[in-house]
Amino acid sequence: MNAQTQPPIELVTGLSVLQPRYDLILCDVWGVLHNGIAAHPGAADALTRFRERGGTVILVSNAPRPGGAVIEQLDGFGVPRSAFDDILTSGDLTRRAVAERAGQPVHHLGPARDLPIFDGLDVRLAPVEEADYVVCSGLLDDDEDTPEDYRPLFERMRARDLLMICANPDLVVERGDVLIPCAGALALLYEEMGGETFYAGKPHRPVYEAAVERAGAIRGRPVGPDRILAVGDAIRTDIAGAAGFGMAALLVGRGIHTEDLGLSHGPLDPARALPWLNRQPHRPTAMIELLVW
């Protein structure tokens, strides 16, 4: 089915337009609730209102940290806990993968701030030459480094056939108005070099299966895919993941695709935004500039 035969993408001004169709929202965090520097107050308000009308909200983040650490970050941004019922991160799924390899030495590739991902687990951090596998949570210095800087390390990993568990499948993320590379960019390069990778978050099914299971427990009954709306700002993760799971998706335009959609210098222009969206491998059900009610 090509873009001409698919349903048109709805351009909506508020979540209230879509709310009656869905019982569950699986909502991205970075790029929707905040931009890495400041919160988007309208987004938290919209999710709170959705919950007040009987909906359930599970935050689904590719953050390479446990969900509790992300909640603390949201508290710091002033995001009220009324905006969500629970949270699931790629860090949570990474912890599960590490627990399954209890006692095995692991090499951590990423900044020290991500070390809580190993807290309480039976794990020994080791250099590449002694590790059984690698957990990649990001670049050591995401302000200065590029993925190519890690090619020599990846050659050493390939020589030992080490599995890389990618704790953050995002390629880039917003930090204010700047896009910075994430662990997903490193995993992509490692794959291109012939390395084996496991992605712990979006757009892969395990994170959605776990999130929907949690929502069912909260609601006391299962939620079918036709009653779920995924909300996010990334075609490659949020929108692709929703398509793979059979869910509707709402793309937040003022995120990592701000420039692509022509939103850098003005309001949404459908004549520019829709052709770009229709060229993408995965199309959202609807699009909104920023998540508001």
CATH class of the domain at 103-199: Alpha Beta
Give the beta-strand count: 14
Task: Please work out how many helical segments DSSP would assign.
Answer: 8
Per CATH, what is the topology of the domain at 103-199?
A: Rossmann fold
Low-confidence stretches: none
Structure description:
The protein is α/β, with parallel strands linked by helices and 293 residues long. It has a domain at 103-199: Rossmann fold (3-Layer(aba) Sandwich), CATH 3.40.50. The protein is built from eight helices and 14 strands. The chain has helices spanning 41-52, 67-77, 90-99, 151-159, 183-192, 205-219, 235-245, 270-278, and strands at 10-11, 24-27, 56-61, 86-89, 105-109, 124-125, 133-136, 163-166, 172-175, 178-181, 197-199, 228-232, 248-252, 286-288. Strands 1-14-13-12-2-3-4 form a seven-stranded parallel beta sheet, sandwiched between helices. A five-stranded parallel beta sheet has the order 6-5-7-8-11, with helices on both faces. A two-stranded antiparallel ribbon has the order 9-10. α1 (41-52) links the parallel β2 and β3 (56-61). The protein is globular, with a radius of gyration of 19 Å. The model has no long low-confidence stretch (mean pLDDT 94).
